[in-house]
Amino acid sequence: MEKKFKRTTVTSALPYANGPVHIGHLAGVYVPADIYVRYLRLKKEDVLFIGGSDEHGVPITIRAKKEGITPQDVVDRYHKIIKDSFEEFGISFDVYGRTTSKVHCETASEFFRTLYDKGEFVEKTSMQYYDEEVHTFLADRYITGECPHCHAEGAYGDQCEKCGTSLSPTDLINPKSAISGSKPVMRETKHWYLPLDKHEAWLRQWILEDHKEWRNNVYGQCKSWLDMGLQPRAVSRDLDWGIPVPVEGAEGKVLYVWFDAPIGYISNTKELLPDSWEMWWKDPETRLVHFIGKDNIVFHCIVFPAMLKAEGSYILPDNVPSNEFLNLEGDKISTSRNWAVWLHEYLRDFPGKQDVLRYVLTANAPETKDNDFTWKDFQARNNNELVAVYGNFVNRALQLTQKYYDGVVPACGELTEYDRQTLDEFKDVKAKVEELLDAFKFRDAQKEAMNLARIGNKYIADSEPWKVVKTDPERVKTIIYISLQLTANLAIAFEPFLPFSSEKLRKMLNMESFEWNRLGRTDLLQAGHRLAKPELLFEKIEDDVIEAQVQKLLDTKKANEEANYKAKPIRENIAFEDFQKLDIRVGTVLECTKVPKADKLLCFKIADGLENRTIVSGISKFYKPEELVGKQVCFIANLAPRKLKGIESQGMILSALNYDESLSVITVDREVKPGSEVC
């Protein structure tokens, strides 16, 4: 039998304050968490929504060194960007804290010290890379080298960003320090470890037997880890940015960020509710739910529960609804490659369209498998669903009420069979949406809410009140009354998903609020109730707006290719005599035309100092013919003639092949006589 809880603590993974939030984070964690919390609040349940920035760890120190600023400067900048964009986007945290706060540092230190004093850690020495130039041990991210799997350069000591393989620093080929560039050496260092193997038996029972209702991806990943056998995991690191390890002999060591960050949920609650925080973390009548991405499953289902259990006074998570990854235009979202749609930029580029993105990310949520976000799909869902279905129905219902009844809800007359059938279709909407939201099936729940709009759109289109009003005005009152009841139901049903649109619709209906428990009723608006002036709920997004976003991504891709360009290896040596066989000359382009029925070919007439010659070259994609007339180009003069599209080509024009496969014709920087040799 399912346990009934008095309250719910909801956490969402702490975004890393090394960059802004992107749509992958939103789809994977924050939108579903916000939907769930808004739903519980609508049901008048006691719920606390905890968020905050994760502000320690090596990537932050790397960025700080690169920019010549302090790590605190880095986290201050991104904490503000993230916090502000969450607020504007409507992620309704009760508290949004940070792991550099005084309360967090004290809480994390106390947590470590409690486990240390209870003998819950194992002290071990190990060999770790050390940079002799800057006299410091190197964390995994401070070591780069060649990936042993895909052989990409610049792989980190914990992961290759190109192929995604998890690594250890010792796996790298030709490792080097990311700080000094020197080759690191191995030195002995001491750290504290959480012996996860000691917790394996109860974790196996708790997850594999007691929580079979968890999502398949969560259950499966946990089972895989447990079946491989858990190993002790370090809880300290040799670093100068983080929370100092609070024991003697730990100078120069900080709490490992994975140990410190989840404690942030507790410290942020403590900051919000200093006198009653324990009720939300230690009372067995409290339900704990973690919303995370799949890269955080092990930390929230195995490591953090082991920490909580070792401490002894905390509740364990009841559910950990984790999503898979969202890709962008067919490619993996990457912060380092700037391949992302950043939330703060979206809010700037699409003012007032928070709900459009919320809708699209939920409709395309990666709940069971990785999914793909494309700007074309974004546009199509807005135009074909929000505008053409939901918005169209609401606008028709409100505008017709304004036109026929001066904005006053008409009285309902006698119902037809079709009216009863329509009303019957949406009477169970509350039960259906609740069942899906309770099971964390947000995509299907939103689809159920949108189904209300489809019912309404079909009803008003089939009933044709604009025609019926000429022959049976009394009948139209019933049609509009039913349409308005459906509209009011939409405002309630979409409240967890599209809060901005629901608020706008409530204002148009001139209703302060709707109770969730009234969802599905047909008397939400009483006859005689006056509506406010109707407005469009959604608006079409035009092609040029979408093209601008696609172009931004294409520009990013080009910039990445340019930044990562590496020249091809030099071919094997040839004898000088072989080079001398090539007769490379300079010629002046007299004429240049496109070759008919050949997209790539241009036909040149070139003065070579002896006579005029014809050369056909495949550079039409990169030049207009008129751009090349008068230029002096380099060409191979003694290449055997060859027919291309029926034209005899007497040589080859030389071009440079750029990183992006574009061609640039090789010219001379000052004028020479046609036929001059290149030597």
Q: Top keywords for this entry?
A:
679 residues; MetRS_core; metal ion binding; 4 domains; 5-stranded antiparallel β-sheet; 41% helix; 5-stranded parallel β-sheet; Isoleucyl-tRNA Synthetase, Domain 1; single chain; alpha+beta; Methionyl-trna Synthetase, domain 2; ligase; Rossmann fold
Brief account:
With 679 residues, the chain is of the alpha+beta class. Helices cover 41% and strands 18% of the residues. The radius of gyration is 33 Å and the shape is flat.
What is the strand content? Answer: 15-25%
Order of strands, widest sheet? 3-2-1-13-14
Q: State the shape.
A: flat
How would you sum up the major sheet? 5 strands, parallel
Rg over C-alpha atoms, rounded to the nearest angstrom: 33 Å
Give the uncertain stretches in residue-range form. Answer: none
Assign the CATH architecture of the largest domain.
Orthogonal Bundle
Helix/strand-derived category reads: alpha+beta
Give the tally of structural domains.
4
CATH topology name of the largest domain: Isoleucyl-tRNA Synthetase, Domain 1
Task: Provide the CATH superfamily of the largest domain.
Answer: Isoleucyl-tRNA Synthetase, Domain 1
> Roughly what is the average pLDDT, rounded to an integer?
94
Highest-level CATH class of the largest domain: Mainly Alpha
Helix content: 40-55%
Euclidean distance between termini CA atoms:
88 Å
